């Protein structure tokens, strides 16, 4: 039987007033001591319940609420007659009579947010209305003290759970997808009308990317959904937007705006990015605390993401890196696999003579090689190739990896196109006065390269302690030997390349002219190399 609680009288006797004050003080002291000792809820109730039972003159006391893991539990003390206290507290609040006695229950809440239920069991049937009213007032005093403590525990637990969820989202190998999920999860718990992530490009630190969200949903991003005002600001101010309190960003958004700069704990020289949030109503301390924690986690995630992009940028062009990192299982494309690939070796003609007679210092050699090799790698990337490595002044490219979506004809075409481009830009360098003077000093007719192109099966993937993308096969060795046979501004292609190009319908390929088939024995290779000279 459940009865509605009797409304307590307005006037309290002095004795009851002193009792309630003492009860409140005792409860507060017990809870404060528990908080000071940083006890768990179990330890807290174990500390409080015996004393409260004594002061209330009750038979049993129980609280149903969520624990530190946000799992609902019931803690009880006293004699409940073998009945589970949580089952009794699950009923309507107020006064109810049971075989075990008279139960008074009250909802625990703060600012209208329920955090649990408090119940006190008294022996025997309910007394008169005056007794019930006094007991309800005593219950209310204890409840008021418990409300705040339980709200603190629940708020901290919810915050912790939310942080774990955001961290889990940010661990997504696809950074953008993880970021979208994290912001959406955050917006489900706190008011987040506007959210901007602005961050540096890993490979080109002067380039900025951004993602903006409206109530947790992606609104604009610097790739396929650009924002005209943001594009203008990024173009005008560049990376200065990441430093300090950039007021120009605040003027772009409505309402109150707050910024959090993303800085790596490992390298504090330059900010990695910035979070900007805005709202007409501002943000609560709870929301700002979550945003700061997200900023800290995001800093580390950006650092890891950038490190991965920088590593991949040694081998792949930006488009391939983007495609790789959009695949949650992108590592499968980088594992060793046996495939037929186009292979290119390009080496500067007379490089030893140039180094010994043409430059006045090793630094000058380095600058020269840096410029030439960067442009050679750009030629490889422009035709979908992978930069394998550089051995001395020899640049090595692979065509087919990392996705192997093209057939052997396309791979042969790409390798030859890249070879032609390398030959062309290298020859054009001879027109520069400093390069022409260099060639005159070393008695060369100009700057040129020797190129060897092969089409062969190789084992491709990340290898070695530095996890470099490379390939191993006899075909690689053949391409290296072929390149060493090539003369000034000469490109030699293996028979396999020539045969594949016969199947091409590309106008560019149809115009290519080859010399006769040649066979050249080379050291440490069992069979002579069968190859063609590609006419300039």
Automatic annotation (TrEMBL):
Q: Matching Pfam families, A to Z?
A: Guanylate_cyc (PF00211)
Which SUPFAM superfamilies does the UniProt record give? Nucleotide cyclase (SSF55073)
Q: What is this protein called?
A: Adenylate/guanylate cyclase domain-containing protein
State the species of origin.
Corallococcus carmarthensis
Stretches assigned to the Guanylate cyclase domain: 342-483
Which GO biological process annotations does it have?
Answer: cyclic nucleotide biosynthetic process; intracellular signal transduction
Q: InterPro entries attached here?
A: A/G_cyclase (IPR001054), Adenylyl/Guanylyl_Cyclase_3/4 (IPR050697), Nucleotide_cyclase (IPR029787)
Q: Source organism's superkingdom? A: Bacteria
GO MF entries:
adenylate cyclase activity
């Amino acid at each position: 039987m459940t009865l509605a609680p009797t409304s307590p009288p307005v006037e309290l006797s002095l004795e009851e007033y002193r009792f309630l004050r003492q009860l409140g003080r005792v409860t507060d002291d017990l809870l404060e001591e528990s908080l000071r000792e940083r006890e768990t809820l179990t330890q807290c109730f174990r500390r409080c319940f015996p004393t409260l039972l004594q002061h209330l003159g009750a038979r049993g006391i129980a609280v149903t609420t969520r624990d530190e893991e946000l799992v609902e539990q019931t803690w009880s003390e006293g004699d409940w007659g073998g009945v589970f206290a949580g089952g009794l507290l699950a009923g309507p609040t107020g006064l109810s009579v049971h075989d075990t006695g008279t139960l008074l229950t009250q909802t625990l809440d703060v600012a209208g947010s329920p955090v649990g239920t408090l119940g006190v069991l008294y022996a025997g049937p309910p007394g008169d209305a005056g007794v019930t009213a006094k007991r309800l007032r005593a219950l209310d005093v204890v409840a008021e003290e418990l409300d705040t403590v339980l709200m603190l525990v629940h708020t901290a637990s919810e915050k912790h759970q939310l942080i774990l969820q955001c961290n889990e989202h940010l661990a997504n190998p696809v950074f953008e997808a993880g970021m979208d999920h994290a912001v959406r999860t955050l917006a489900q718990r706190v008011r987040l009308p506007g959210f901007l992530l602005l961050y540096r490009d890993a490979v080109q630190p002067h380039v900025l990317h951004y993602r903006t969200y409206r109530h947790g949903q992606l609104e604009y991003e610097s790739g396929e959904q650009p924002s005209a005002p943001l594009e203008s600001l990024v173009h005008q101010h560049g990376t200065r937007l990441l430093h300090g309190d950039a007021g120009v960003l605040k003027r772009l958004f409505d309402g109150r705006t707050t910024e959090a700069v993303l800085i790596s704990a490992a390298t504090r020289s330059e900010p990695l990015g910035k979070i900007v949030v805005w709202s007409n109503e501002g943000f609560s301390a709870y929301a700002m605390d979550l945003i700061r924690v997200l900023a800290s986690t995001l800093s580390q995630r950006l650092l890891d993401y950038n490190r991965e992009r920088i590593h991949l940028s040694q081998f792949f062009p930006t488009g391939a890196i983007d495609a790789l990192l959009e695949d949650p299982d992108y590592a499968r494309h980088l594992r060793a696999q046996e495939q037929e690939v186009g292979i290119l070796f390009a080496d500067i003609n007379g490089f030893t003579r140039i180094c010994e007679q043409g430059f006045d210092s090793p630094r000058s050699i380095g600058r020269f090689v840096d410029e030439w090799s960067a442009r050679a790698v750009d030629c490889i990337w422009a035709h979908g190739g992978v930069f394998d490595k550089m051995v001395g002044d020899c640049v090595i490219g692979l065509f087919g990896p990392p996705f192997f979506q093209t057939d052997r004809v396309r791979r042969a075409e790409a390798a030859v196109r890249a070879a032609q481009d390398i030959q062309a830009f290298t020859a054009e360098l001879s027109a520069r006065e400093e390069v022409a003077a260099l060639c005159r000093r070393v008695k060369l007719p100009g700057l040129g390269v020797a190129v060897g192109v092969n089409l062969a099966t190789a084992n491709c993937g990340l290898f070695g302690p530095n996890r470099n993308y490379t390939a191993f096969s006899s075909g690689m060795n053949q391409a290296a030997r072929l390149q060493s046979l090539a003369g000034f501004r000469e490109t030699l292609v293996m028979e396999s390349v020539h045969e594949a190009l016969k199947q091409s319908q590309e106008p560019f390929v149809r115009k290519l002219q080859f010399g006769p088939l040649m066979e050249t024995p080379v050291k440490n290779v069992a069979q002579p190399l069968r190859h063609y000279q590609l006419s300039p």
